[in-house]
Amino acid sequence: MKYRNLKIRTKMTIAFATIIVIFLGGFAAVTLGLRTINGSVNLIYSEGLIGVENLIEADRDAYQSRLAFCDSFMYLSTGDMGKIATFLADVDTNLAQVNDRFSIFRKIYADSGKAPVPAFQVYDDNYAKLVLETGNLKAAVNSGNIDRAVGVYTGGYTSAFDAMRGAMDELTNIMLEESA
Length: 180
Description:
Layout (H helix, E strand, L loop, with lengths): L7 H69 L4 H31 L6 H26 L2 H34 L1
């Protein structure tokens, strides 16, 4: 049977059936494409944005902790122990937030299946040193010994802080390169 010999109704039915099949095929392809895009967007959000957000907030908290120490130095000369106590409490709060937020970033990084990089060990080693030096620095500030406080601050504290921050910077750069 040739197409030319078919009735118009049959020809119209075949034409519309062909159009419907093509339409359904296109619809299925678009639906699958949108699911893939949605999955990619969710991955970018959960791994990239949330992870980097926590890493950047950890970085900010580290600087706020350091600034609180600097502010406490200003009040050593006046002997205002109330203000000093407030700033030292801020040091503790911000330092704890650094590790909390960095831990969230570390989990997101690990859960994404990325290979660990040396910057994580650098962070761990220097965060531990920073906690130790923070205790030494707080003791010096609380005792009112400005020379000892400046010595700890410019020595072990700054060394550990800079190395820890360098590790966070390196991890930020890795995340930004991966998202580019």
